[in-house]
Amino acid sequence: MSSQTLTFLGCGSLGTAILCGLLASLEGAGPSSATVDTNGIEVHNESSWKARGVEAPSRFIACVRSAKSAQRLKHELARFPSSARVTVLHGDNLQGVHSADSILLACQPKDLAACLSPPAIQKACRGKLLISILAGVTIPQIEAVLRRSHSITTLQDGQSAVDAAPPSPPATEPLPTTIVRAMPNSAAMVGASTTAITAPPSTPPSAVDFTASIFRTIGTVTRVPSPQFDICTALCGSSPAFFALFLESLLDGAVALGLKRSDAQIMAADTMKGTAMLILQGRYSPERVKETVATPGGSTIQGLLELERRALRATGADALIRSAGAATGLGDSDG
Q1: CB of 77 within 8 A of CB of 83?
Q2: What percentage of residues in the chain have a pLDDT greater than 70?
Q3: I want to staple 96 with a disulfide (CB 3.0 to 4.6 A). Which of 61, 119, 296, 316 is the partner?
């Protein structure tokens, strides 16, 4: 493959973070296949794509809805010398999909049908890889949209209603579009995302490798079975907000005791980061971190007992379970 083009259908904050990660990886090309930064995180560049036998995309098309969004994106990308590789289109998804070798679907989940239902879009998707980062939208739901011909009717309030026509092609025939699902998180904006990917067993390995290589430019990648994907949506996608809430509670306590919030934020966030690194590098399990810090008769065990009295463990587990359940329903409004 040569001169691969990757089109983004939708390019909000997460899509922009992914695109920035890709541009940074191409600009960081060097003699080695990968380097490791001071935090022990692998930094991937164009050479690392080739080392894995994967052709990196060399051109990008970002499809957005409005001229304002297009201007915002161009401003964000201007800091990259390689921004000339990116074409930004507004209101012209068809051109973007038609010109693509692969497509990254990054619209809002509620806009899935409106985005993929036009027959010309469906035709342009055939024979291509479609990577979805839509929370709660399953691969079968995307396949169902691509198998239908639709007509879009604009309502008075500006919304769209989707009227399904007879399916084409029949559900028994293989879909001519390869679909892989991915769920990065907000840390993609700083190149530290944890991304889960899933694909049907019949998916060509090259499609999975290409998808994984994209998301390795913004962090780490784990492949999971499809039935577990909504769990990963909650664990990877929602937990940054959970961690932030707990961090905020520690800041409130520190401020109540007299520490400046700005100082407390640096210390607490760095402590959270350091703890995560101990676990990720395999030196400690979460349980061992707790046991190591909570020395007999010390102050830490008193705080831990208070957290247990307030059912922090059960509350955290229940929050994840609720988020996973909510993620399952996000794709139900696809038309």
Answers
A1: yes
A2: 83
A3: 61
The pLDDT of residue 164: 41
Task: Return the pLDDT at 331.
Answer: 61
Give the tens place of pLDDT for each residue, 114-123. 999 999 999 9
Kind of pairing between the strands at 86-90 and 34-36:
unpaired
SS3 content of the chain, % helix, strand, coil (to 5): 50, 20, 30
Cα 79 from Cα 76, distance rounded (Å): 7
DSSP readout, 289-319? HHHHHS-TTSHHHHHHHHHHHTTHHHHHHHH
Rounded to 5°, angle at Cα 143 from 115 and 229: 100
Give the pair of three-digit tokens for residue 54.
């994967």
> What is the edge-to-edge ordering of all strands in the sheet holding 5-9?
86-90, 59-64, 5-9, 102-105, 129-132, 178-183, 193-198, 219-223
Is residue 169 reached through a cis peptide bond, with omega within 30 degrees of 0 on the bond before it? Answer: yes
Q: What are phi and psi of 80, to 5 degrees?
A: -100, 125
What's the pLDDT score for residue 130?
A: 97
Which DSSP category does 175 fall into? Answer: P
For residue 166, the model assigns a pLDDT of 41
* CA distance linking residue 214 with residue 33, whole number of Å: 15
What are 283's two structure tokens? 């030196």
List of the chain residues with pLDDT < 70: 1-2, 29-48, 149-174, 330-335
Q: In whole angstroms, give the CA distance from residue 23 to residue 49.
A: 13
Which one-letter amino acid corresponds to residue 279?
A: I
Enumerate the β-bridge partners of residue 162. 152
Write the DSSP assignment of 274-287 as a string of letters.
Answer: HHHHHHHTTS--HH
Backbone torsion region of residue 3, taken as left when φ is above 0, otherwise alpha when ψ lies between -120 and 50, otherwise beta: left
- Of 203, 6, 25, 175, the C-alpha closest to 106 is 6
